[in-house]
Specification:
By secondary structure, this protein is mainly β. It is about 0% helix and about 55% strand. Strands 2, 4, 5, 6, 9, 10 and 11 form a seven-stranded mixed β-sheet that branches. A four-stranded antiparallel β-sheet has the order 1-3-8-7, with no helix packed on it.
């Protein structure tokens, strides 16, 4: 069973930076897509960034140029990092890590990011 866990959410001032981490375990992850989604209060969950199994990365228009994803692996654990900079109040949301492995989709519990002065 694949397990996904996010960390790194915090309260940050507008213009600040933050890095979120996602760790996925429980599979050989031979072909896996990983991504970050977010959900603000009263809004639908939306894609932030997606890294395909082939290494292609797609960003939402609202975060292009400000957010960057990076992937790493160690001992059958896959990591996906989300480096966020120039944060805006509208980036406030619960951020979720998503893993698609062998046709099944897995979600973490989410981590809260609040951008406020």
């Amino acid at each position: 069973q694949v397990q996904v866990a996010e960390s790194g959410g915090d309260l940050v001032q507008p213009g600040g930076s933050l890095r979120l981490s996602c760790a996925a375990s429980g599979s050989d992850f031979s072909f896996t897509a990983m991504g970050w989604f977010r959900q603000a209060p009263g809004k639908q969950r939306e894609l932030v960034a997606l890294r395909t199994g082939g290494g292609r990365v797609v960003y939402a228009d609202s975060v292009k140029g400000r957010f960057t994803v990076a992937r790493d692996s160690a001992q059958n654990i896959l990591y996906l990092y989300l480096q966020m900079s120039s944060l805006k109040p509208e980036d406030t949301a619960v951020y979720y890590c998503n893993v698609v492995d062998n046709g099944s989709q897995y979600w973490g519990q989410g981590t809260q990011v609040t951008v406020s002065s």
